[in-house]
Amino acid sequence: MRLAPPLLALALLAGTGLAARADEKLPPDQQAKVEAMLKQEGFTKWEEIELDDGMIEVDDAIDASGKKFDLQLDPKTLAIVKRKAE
Fold this sequence. Notes:
The chain is an alpha+beta fold.
């Protein structure tokens, strides 16, 4: 039983380290490519673009008709793999 608290503490530290790194800003060149793709797809503005869990996430992307979406993009192809209406 004496090993349980240290192992629990280690697990908690490891988990918080991963959570702190979960959302990352994109490099400027990739950010520009994502923004160009969003414009090409008809989105007029968006709130935030970040890398999270290996996917590019776009928060509150607004299309030409004014509808708002959260998007997930494939980081290699920039294809929209998930589109969730807000």
